[in-house]
From TrEMBL:
<feature type="binding site">
    <location>
        <position position="535"/>
    </location>
    <ligand>
        <name>Ca(2+)</name>
    </ligand>
</feature>
<dbReference type="GO" id="GO:0005576">
    <property type="term" value="C:extracellular region"/>
</dbReference>
<feature type="active site" description="Charge relay system">
    <location>
        <position position="491"/>
    </location>
</feature>
<keyword id="KW-0732">Signal</keyword>
<keyword id="KW-0479">Metal-binding</keyword>
<feature type="binding site">
    <location>
        <position position="553"/>
    </location>
    <ligand>
        <name>Ca(2+)</name>
    </ligand>
</feature>
<dbReference type="InterPro" id="IPR050819">
    <property type="entry name" value="Tripeptidyl-peptidase_I"/>
</dbReference>
<keyword id="KW-0865">Zymogen</keyword>
<protein>
    <recommendedName>
        <fullName>tripeptidyl-peptidase II</fullName>
        <ecNumber>3.4.14.10</ecNumber>
    </recommendedName>
</protein>
<dbReference type="GO" id="GO:0006508">
    <property type="term" value="P:proteolysis"/>
</dbReference>
<keyword id="KW-0720">Serine protease</keyword>
<dbReference type="Pfam" id="PF00082">
    <property type="entry name" value="Peptidase_S8"/>
</dbReference>
<dbReference type="InterPro" id="IPR030400">
    <property type="entry name" value="Sedolisin_dom"/>
</dbReference>
<feature type="active site" description="Charge relay system">
    <location>
        <position position="294"/>
    </location>
</feature>
<feature type="active site" description="Charge relay system">
    <location>
        <position position="290"/>
    </location>
</feature>
<dbReference type="GO" id="GO:0008240">
    <property type="term" value="F:tripeptidyl-peptidase activity"/>
</dbReference>
<comment type="function">
    <text>Secreted tripeptidyl-peptidase which degrades proteins at acidic pHs and is involved in virulence.</text>
</comment>
Length: 574
């Protein structure tokens, strides 16, 4: 009798183990984004690496505390959280971790933990096994304009029992931005014109006339009152993100400093950190306009601040967004004394090409860095109200990501000096994913009242408004591949603003005060807005409209305005 029961129980256990988990669709999209075409079925043996985001313990609690410690009116302002505190908020529960790893083990997979809190796992498997694991059919999608192709699906599922444990799986239904938004170098400057610019820069007079049309480090120093003196803190650091095979060249930086920062050593260089098989080869043919721009203007403006170029490769074949995440997890895992206090990124994509789950997961990750005292800055995009690049949009404007995330600082672009006006390409608008945060609600309400019925129905009036701030973004002189020429874009503005924040951090550290960290509540405070120059002219056309007009106060073209270094020091009590 006992033996019969044992055999029955054994058979029952075998049957239960053989029964597949009931699946439920976790994410789905209607079709591939604009510009992508179906390109067949990949080989089932093709390897894919996935990141699995687990539901965090109390991310809402972390963000609630972040909004308090980043508010200048708070008694705990600037008391940034330790890594241990952040982990307590963001780690998954033991049950969540065990359930997901058990599911993976049942499918012959062992997960690697890729974040310090354990909320992100990584697995590498084949297309065939991934189809079974996620109850889907992965396909190849090509982007004819760039010649790039990616493996994605239009829907994937997970076991119903894990719906409350898994936040997102990537790459699945979120497509990358294959264009990357890399700026183009205009015709190189002639020697006579370059000599004239150098001479005017050396004069250091108040806003040289040339700065109205051509930007150099001396112009940024004159327009925004940025000092040329060297940073004194040994702990201040600035990070620059690099993607899509954009490589920063030491020879171009040396030439740039020789031309435009003759007061500092031309041998000044940057540190290198690589992720996901990233690299930074040197040579004229390896020069990257975006990478050179970002490095030359962070080093060229933030005098004496150590700069690290973080080059993210494509080993994981998941586009910029996976790299965005890996940079966050890398910095979060660094010791507090080693991590940069400011990170600038000049890449992004239209919000409607990112799923809500992926957008939420990345935004949550940015909030953890903000809580650690890191200022996260992104270029807002270069397509006006049409998004990250000029895109067809007949019925509604296209906000960009991650600018719509309320836990990072979005930087738009301006041009000219008398007066400084909005650059027409400066992307701005209102998120369709993220609600309007309390720190900006008063300013956004004032703008919408002044806007009236203009563009009614084309944007989400209750969404998070962006950009937050702006800086010059037209005809930045850089050296790329040995040639000097001009570059336009909000990707000029973000490293510029980041460099200025780093110099403020240097002064704060020297005074024994905490760094600025998550910037937005400070920027939108009365002290913060007083340190910014309001931009009231210009607009950002797109989608068959004139876009949004710049107005007094905050606007979705230039945000709260451009920086004034002396006033920023006053605003932080220096």
């Amino acid at each position: 009798m006992v033996r019969t029961v044992f055999v029955f129980v054994s058979l029952l256990a075998a049957l239960v183990a053989a029964v597949p988990h009931p699946f439920v669709v976790h994410e789905a999209i209607n079709g591939a984004p604009e510009g992508f075409v179906h390109a067949g079925t990949p080989s089932p043996d093709t390897e894919l690496t996935f990141r699995i985001g687990l539901v965090q313990n109390n991310i809402a609690g972390l963000q609630e505390k972040l909004l308090v410690i980043s508010d200048p009116a708070s008694a705990t302002y600037g008391q940034w959280m330790s890594t241990e505190e952040i982990v307590e908020f963001t780690k998954p529960s033991a049950a969540t971790d065990a359930a997901v790893k058990e599911w993976l083990a049942e499918n012959g997979l062992t997960a690697a933990t890729t974040s310090i809190a354990g909320d992100w796992l990584s697995i590498t498997t084949t297309v065939g096994k991934a189809n079974t694991l996620f109850n889907t059919k992965f396909q190849s999608f090509a982007h004819p304009e760039t010649g790039k192709s990616f493996i994605r699906t239009l829907a994937y599922s997970i076991p119903a029992s894990l719906q409350g444990a898994v936040e997102v799986v990537h790459p699945t239904v979120t497509f990358p931005n294959p264009l990357g938004g890399v700026p183009r170098l205009t015709a190189s400057i002639g020697k006579r014109e370059l000599n004239a610019l150098e001479k005017k820069d050396l004069e250091r007079r108040a806003i040289p006339a040339s700065c109205a049309t051509t930007i150099t480090p001396a112009c940024i120093q004159a327009i925004y009152g940025v000092p040329t003196t060297k940073a004194t803190s040994s702990t201040v650091k600035l990070g620059v993100s690099g993607f899509i095979d954009q490589f920063a060249q030491t020879a171009d930086l040396k030439s740039f400093l020789t031309k435009f920062r003759t007061d500092i050593s031309s041998s000044t260089t940057f540190a290198l950190q690589t992720l996901d098989g990233g690299s930074n080869p040197q040579g004229r043919n390896d020069a990257g306009i975006e990478a050179n721009l970002d490095i030359e203007y962070t080093i060229g403006i933030a005098t004496g601040v150590p700069v690290t170029f973080i080059s993210v490769g494509e080993n994981t074949k998941d586009g910029d967004l996976g790299g965005f995440l890996d940079i966050i997890n890398f910095i979060q895992g660094e010791a507090a004394a080693s991590r940069p206090q400011v990170l600038t990124t000049s890449y992004g994509q239209n919000e409607n090409t990112v799923t809500r789950a992926m957008a939420n997961s990345l935004c949550n990750a940015y909030s953890t860095l903000g809580a650690a005292g890191v200022s996260i800055l992104f270029a807002s995009g270069d397509g006006g109200v049409a998004g990250s690049q000029t895109t067809s949009c007949s019925t509604s404007f296209l906000p960009t990501f991650p600018s719509g995330c309320p836990f990072m600082t979005s930087v738009g672009a301006t041009q000219g000096t008398s007066p400084e006006t909005a650059a027409s390409f400066s992307s701005g608008g209102f998120s369709n994913f993220f609600a309007q945060p309390s720190y900006q609600s008063a300013q956004v309400k004032s703008y919408l009242t002044a806007l009236g019925s203009t563009n009614a129905g084309k944007f989400n009036t209750s969404g998070r408004g962006f950009p937050d701030v702006a800086a010059q973004g037209v005809n930045f002189q850089i050296v790329d591949g040995g040639q000097t020429g001009g570059v336009d874009g909000t990707s000029c503005a973000s490293p510029t603003f980041a460099a200025i924040i780093s110099l403020v951090n240097d002064r704060l550290i020297a005074a024994g005060k905490p760094v600025l960290g998550f910037l937005n509540p400070f920027l939108y405070s009365s002290a913060g807005t007083a340190a910014l120059t309001d931009i009231t002219t210009g607009d950002n056309p797109g989608c068959g409209t004139n876009g949004f007009p710049a107005k007094a106060g905050w606007d979705p073209v230039t945000g709260l305005g451009t920086p004034n270094f002396a006033k920023l020091l006053t605003a932080v009590g220096l």
